[in-house]
């Protein structure tokens, strides 16, 4: 337990100490919020769908969480470069504790980042519809964070340097974000796009978050929680497996 | 019979595809001694250290560290040694004290003993006054001293040092060897080290093994090695045994990461 705690604390301290990173990783979701939210807002309203900011905000919160979480997972690469990874790997500790501590820490950091973006969304005009569902929203935020920290852990365990990083961002993370319903409604989609969306675990995270915060669930709260939870814990298990195979 | 042999290696082999990096080596290290493991670049030193310290599984052969097999019981074996790696292994964004604390927790040092042990270890290497400074602000020598202090926290019986004095000035090198010799004297620790500085090996090692091409080509006290090679210095003996050719090593992924890290402003 104390091992998981100290590694969790390490992630938090590193986050608090890198203020530049906090601001840098807030810039992208806020850019999306303002450019798309206010840019598409009038068109969206004219199509009879109501307030676009209200629709978009949960997607943007999910975005902030997923990028922060992904980076936390991929911090394994920095630990590898600066050598601290070796210190962790020769410690007399089952690797699953290390993965759990790092993942919980990375997920906590990502949720904090999501809450900051959520606060900004509120300032931009977003209103929570049902305060009773806030714990549900928190659960979805945490599961999205776990999911992407786990993906980051897998990627960070498999690649050895940053050269493959743009590939991962462009062919894995960005598509997962765009094909999740974060920026457009999923209800009326058909064909290939619909299939892709239904295969993307983030879809259920975004739907759950949106359901809890504003617009109601497209797939239902229980299916969202279940599918996202299964995806998060499966990927965490895969991440643990790959992390335990790292050799330095 | 083997109770005084703290490290026992038998027929150790490591192959990477068709390359035999470590080719059937056997040796043992006497408890409470300083053992120097020398060899040219690419001879198999680091591969051997990695196998001894459980980070690389051997292709075949057996290892016993203080009676434990790192293959069968890696967690027990890891408790028995401390290691200072060839490259830095500190978390630069943590203070010296936080780096020590992380280590103490990961090695299961009882919580009540943390403050006293951390203080003693940091004082031992003269870094107590800098305990609240971030590790990234330390000079190369200070980082090394911190790593040595950290490796001592869980009172291991064996200390592995992979080129502990690489890139340090002579003053710091002397200091570091003084700490290490004190440890061997006062705590009966066993030290297994590699170095390219032959004068250091000559001065501090009780016994030396020279590895080349994955095989141990000679073993003995520094005096015996010099005598057998008919050489005045250990360096002369080393060169006469391993030849004059310069060995090449491939740039690793880590070297490329360094470049990327600089581009990202992470240094």
Can you characterise this structure?
Chain A is an all-alpha fold. Chain A has helices at residues 2-17, 19-46, 52-82, 84-89, 95-123, 134-158, 165-178, 191-199, 201-215, 221-244. The mean pLDDT of chain A is 90. By secondary structure, chain B is of the alpha/beta class. Chain B has helices at 45-52, 74-79, 96-106, 114-124, 140-152, 170-187, 198-204, 222-229, 234-242, 253-263; strands spanning 5-16, 19-30, 34-38, 60-65, 81-84, 158-162, 190-194, 207-212, 215-220. Chain B is globular. In chain B, 42% of the residues are buried. Classes of the chains: A mainly alpha (248), B alpha/beta (267). Chain A binds chain B through residues 2-3, 6-7, 10, 13-14, 17-18, 77-94, 160-163, 247-248, and chain B through 50, 53-56, 74-76, 78-79, 83, 85, 87-94, 98, 101-103, 105-108, 111, 150, 253-254, 256-258, 260-261, 264, 266.
Question: What is the topology?
Answer:
The complex is a heterodimer of chains A (248) and B (267).
Chain A: H1 2-17, H2 19-46, H3 52-82, H4 84-89, H5 95-123, H6 134-158, H7 165-178, H8 191-199, H9 201-215, H10 221-244
Chain B: E1 5-16, E2 19-30, E3 34-38, H1 45-52, E4 60-65, H2 74-79, E5 81-84, H3 96-106, H4 114-124, H5 140-152, E6 158-162, H6 170-187, E7 190-194, H7 198-204, E8 207-212, E9 215-220, H8 222-229, H9 234-242, H10 253-263
Parallel strand pairs in B: 3-7, 3-8, 5-6, 6-7
Antiparallel strand pairs in B: 1-2, 1-4, 8-9
Helix pairs in contact in B: 3-5, 4-5, 8-9
